Amino acid sequence: MSLQNPIFIPGPTNIPERLRHAMNVPTQDHRAPDFSDTFLPVLADAKKVFGTEEGEILLFTSSGTGGWEAAISNTLSPGDKVLIARYGMFSHRWIDMCQRHGLDVQVIECPWGTGAPADQFQAILAADTNHEIKALMVTHNETATGVLSNIGAVRGAMNNADHPALLFVDGVSSIASVPFKMDEWGVDIAVAGSQKGFMLSTGMAILAISQKALSAMEQAKLPRTYFDFRDMLKANANGGFPYTPPLNLIYGMRASLDMLFEEGLENVYARHHRLAEGVRQAVSAWGFKLCAVSPDLYSETVSAIYVPEGFNSNELTDHAFNKYGISFGVGLGEMAGRAFRIGHLGSLTEVMVLAGLAAIEMAMVDLDYPITLGQGVAAAQEYYRNT
User: Fold this and answer.
1) Considering only CA atoms, which of 52, 33, 30, 34 is closest in space to residue 43?
2) Smallest Cα–Cα separation from 186: which of 216, 206, 210, 220?
3) Cβ atoms within 10 A of the Cβ of 294, count?
4) Which of 76, 108, 193, 307 has the fewest CB atoms below 10 angstroms from its CB?
5) In 10 A of CB 289, how many CB atoms?
6) What is the tens place of the pLDDT at every residue in 119-168?
7) Do residues 295 and 137 lie in contact, with contact meaning Cβ atoms separated by under 8 Å?
8) DSSP state for residue 368 in the 8-state scheme
C-alpha cells in the first residue's frame, strides 16, 4: 500500500491517473497517416507553455540531460567560449557537459543558495568586445538548492552589455510549473523534461528553439547524429519523426497539455506558489532555514531545507522511506548530509502536501530532531485555510 503514497522529490513527479491511462496504449504505427493528427497539435500547443510564438518545439527520446546535449551540439563548435555560473548541482553538470564537448568554459563561482548573477554576467559580457563568448547558459530552477533565478534580469544584463551571445536556459524543473516567457526574455533554447511539470514518465526532452539558434545551427561543427535538429525539423515538417518516437509519451503529452490548459496556466502557477508557501510556513515553524538565501530566490517547485547541526539529512530521508514508505529529496553536492528537499511541483494538492509534512515530522521526531509533532503541519494548515 505504501506505493500509493505520493512522492515529494523534485522529479519525477506524481503521475495523475488521467495521464497514466493516456500513456497506456497498445503499440501503434507511427508511420500511419493519422500520427500527425496527434503529433503536430502537441508541438503547436507546447509553445504556449514555453511562452513562444516564434520558436520551434522539438521532442527527443531522452531525459532533460539529452536535451542539453542537443542544445550544445547543434549550435556550437569545438573551442567555442561559453559562460556559465556554478551555484548548484545542475549548473555544475552543465559545466561538466560543456567541458566534455571541448568547449572553452568560463565559470563564475557563486555560493550555493544564490542564483544567476546577472550583474557579473553583464560585466563579463561588456568586457568581451570581440564577442568571443558564443553562449550564456543558465539554470532557471536549481533543484539542489531550491533557487529560482530571474531570467528576465539575465536578458537585461545581456542587452545592457549589447552582446549577441545565445541564451540557453535549463527549465527542466520550472517549465509548466512557473511562468516561462521565452520570447519576452529572449531565450534561444529552453529545455524541459516530461517527468516534471508535465507530470509524465521520464523519457522525453522537450526543447523550444529560437530562430537565432536555428541560424547558429548552420555554422556549428560539434558532431551530432541522434540529436541533430536538422533531421528532426525535416521529419516534423511532414508530421513525422526521423526515427521511432516515444509514442506513449506523446499521447501523454497531449493529455498533459489538456490538463494544464483546463486548469489554466495562471492557475497552475498560482497553485505551485500556494503549495510552496505552505511548505515554507512549515519550515519557519520548525525553526529551520532554507538553502535559498533570500525570498526573491525561493523556488515554487522545490524547497531545500538545512537540518540542524549534528543531524544528517540523508539519514532523515532514509528513515522516512524505510519506516513510512515516503520519499523526499536527498541533499546533492554541497548539500549532501546537510539538507533535504521537499518537491512541491506537478500533480499535488494542499492535502497531499500536508500528508508529506506530517510524515517528515514523524521521521524527524523519531530521530530526536528539536521539533514538536504537528508544528509545521499546523503552520501550513493555517496558511492554506486562510488564503
Assistant:
1) 52
2) 210
3) 11
4) 108
5) 16
6) 999 999 999 999 999 999 999 999 999 999 999 999 999 999 999 999 99
7) no
8) T
